[in-house]
Amino acid sequence: MRSVVIAFIAGTLFGLGLTISRMIDPAKVLGFLDVAGEWDASLALVMVAALVVMSLAYRLAAGRSAPFFAEKFQVPTRRDITSRLVGGAALFGIGWGLVGLCPGPAISGLGLGLPQLAQFVLAMLAGMAIHRFWFLRKGSH
Amino acid sequence: MHNFTPYSALIGGALIGLAAALMLLLSGRIAGVSGIVGSLLRPAWGDWGWRLAFVAGLVVAPLLVQWATDKPVSINIDSNLAVLVSAGLLVGFGTSLGSGCTSGHGVCGISRLSPRSILATVVFMAAGAATVYVMRHVVG
Question: Is A136 an interface residue toward B (CB < 8 Å)?
Fold first, then answer.
């Protein structure tokens, strides 16, 4: 139950961050990606601020053997560079640039009643499911 | 850069960092949205509660802002259905194949200096910028 409460608070803070920074608006994100147009550097500052806070959190985590309310840290440990990593990031980037939506803002805006967000999120879930069944059938992941 | 909003960007970014920090320090989890949502599609039943709660928090937040400020949160999308569906499929498939998105790789991965996340972020930012360039300055 505690993990559910923590996740709800963290999700809410995350959504507040997206809303206050305006990254919830695809037009704002496209302004950052449009380096040849009227470039809006705001997203870079969002990243910098988030990275500073999160770096401090890793410092704190490094001094502990376990999180405060869970048995262990579940942090990815892979360091190998694979074609899946690069190819996946490239496909994601193309989709991101087409509309200006990545998973966080797309889901966070779902309560605002725009049909476009629901359409995008349904397609995104379908994309995730297609990936899952594709690799299940190939018997690897 | 008349659209540049440095203060709200820094405050919002710090809140996103704080959210990711809470997940790490309290629950030992990575606050990567594509990972949290993608795993909801898998039949690991005991694992659903916190993932749904995170998603619920994400959805509630802009509604709280609307209620507190008494102004609608503006979202501007001028893409048609075909583009929205294509983009959604690419984002869903790409983040699953590449094991992360802007939050998981961009925030949680880069801050622990993961070489995979640094490379993934460079690649998806470059691909996003290239796509916007083609859409706005070549085709558009």
Answer: no
